[in-house]
Design brief:
Elements lengths: L2 E5 L3 H10 L6 H24 L4 E7 L2 E6 L11 H5 E5 L5 E6 L4 H6 L1 E4 L5 E4 L6 H27 L1
Antiparallel strand pairs: 1-5, 2-3, 4-5, 6-7
Helix pairs in contact: 2-5
């Protein structure tokens, strides 16, 4: 499974600090992490379904013309399996989230593959990243949202 983890940096230190500040209700922070997972998941799905796609090679498969996605851009959708396999899973403490795909070929698309595959074919497939770029596009917004939730939790305790 091609997976990237979105985690609060210094989560253990943060948890100790929140306890010291008597912030035991982490619901707002946990909700912001869950929202981050959902937002990245939706961005990934939109990239695959709607593009923008880099034009690739056109081939004839079963009498039908098919244009593959080009190297460097997100993969194009064909059957919808990849799009429908994108999931996010919250950590047990709900302060971290893993985002990835269950499609067996997702890692090959995300990172590319150069070499001999399990069927003995020589493959030279460039990366068509879709997970990491989606996270990078949203990283600033996610960070600001989590920080705001932490500040709001701190203000509640200070009252």
């Amino acid at each position: 499974m091609a997976t990237f983890n979105v985690r609060l940096v210094g989560k253990d230190r943060l948890t100790k600090k929140l306890k010291r500040l008597r912030i035991s209700d982490l619901n707002a922070v946990q909700r912001s992490v869950a929202l981050a997972g959902a937002e990245v998941q939706n961005r990934i799905k939109n990239k695959i379904a709607r593009g923008p796609h880099v034009p690739g090679v056109t081939t004839i498969i079963g009498g039908k013309s098919h244009t593959r996605s080009g190297e460097g851009g997100p993969p194009k959708t064909d059957t919808g399996f990849l799009v429908n396999s994108i999931r996010f899973l919250l950590d047990e403490d709900r302060l971290g989230v893993s985002i990835g795909s269950r499609a067996p070929y997702a890692a090959r698309l995300e990172f590319g593959f150069h070499g001999t595959d399990s069927k003995g074919r020589n493959i030279d497939q460039g990366a068509r990243p879709f997970i990491h770029p989606s996270f990078e596009e949203l990283k600033k917004r996610i960070t600001e949202r989590v920080r705001a939730a932490i500040r709001a939790s701190h203000r509640k305790v200070a009252r």
